[in-house]
Amino acid sequence: MTEDANAGVENLPPPRPALDGVARSQRALLCLLPIVGALAWNQHRPAWMVFCALALVLALVPRSTRPRPATTALHLYLQLLLMVLWLPPAAAWTRALAIVIAVVLALAWRHRDAANPFHPMMTACAIALLIAPATAAIAPIHANLLLAAACALGGIALLGLRAIRWQAPLGLLGGAGLAYAIGTALTGATYTDPMILALLPPVLLAAFFIADDPPRTCMQPRARLLCGALIGAIAATAIVALHAAHHDDRLLPALAGAVLLGNAAAPALDRWLTPPRRARTSSP
């Protein structure tokens, strides 16, 4: 019986190797293409978006001769493009300030990015939003449907390409929807449909492209799911308390703060949810 079990274990396929930083960044950049296209369609600015798409294609060219600089450059470009897509178009000064802060942080942490417990893009956006808040209102939901569909398509493509794990996005969207439904029911808010959060592009970008950043996320699957739910619940609670579902100046700081709090809680969640190792007892 034992020999049959061992034979079955030996016949199992080997585990899929983990993606390195370059491959993960390349796949994430590729999955941002539909979002760039949807934003170009919505804003009627094809020239600027074509430039971004061109730079995106150039960033996907492999640089095998210098793996470390390629990893740093691709990761920084991914963070900057995410920042441009995440912040509202009307907040030009906030975008410019966030880009400067992100570049400074990237230079400061370029040799020890894995030791930085906080997401660099969220850190830069949080600081920029504190200094120069984004005061524009969010576009109506019907105007965001194309962009929300593009964000969801990019996120599903990321999952299909195995560039991210499913626990953090599912936890964030589920935790946000549950907390939003409870919060609006308790406060008697007008907009009580929790699906409203799933139609907001900043929330979808945070769920698929930010919450599962490898150096900042939990290692254990259960911890990743709980950390995503914690981020979503904190963000949704702040959104309900600040009536921020339709205002960028309150929605974006709530999301950024929730992600940074989730980053801070990730090591503790990993420790608490790691299953205890059983000591091996030798048979007599």
Short description:
With 284 residues, the chain is mainly alpha-helical. It is built from 13 helices and no strands. The longest helix has 26 residues.
What percentage of amino acids are in beta strands? under 5%
Number of helices: 13
Percentage of residues assigned to helices: 55-70%
Q: Quote the average pLDDT.
A: 75
Rough shape?
A: globular
Name the structural class.
Answer: mainly alpha
- Gap between N and C termini: 19 Å
Low-confidence stretches: 1-18
What's the number of extended β-strand segments? Answer: 0
Order of helices and strands: HHHHHHHHHHHHH
Could you explain the architecture of this structure?
With 284 residues, this protein is mainly alpha-helical. The protein has a domain at 85-271. Helix content is 69%, strand content 0%. It starts with a helix and ends in an 11-residue tail after the last helix.
Secondary structure layout plus pairing:
Layout: H1 2-10, H2 21-31, H3 33-43, H4 46-59, H5 67-86, H6 92-108, H7 120-131, H8 141-160, H9 167-187, H10 195-198, H11 201-210, H12 221-242, H13 248-273
Helix pairs in contact: 2-5, 2-8, 3-4, 3-8, 5-6, 5-7, 6-7, 7-13, 8-11, 9-11, 9-12, 12-13
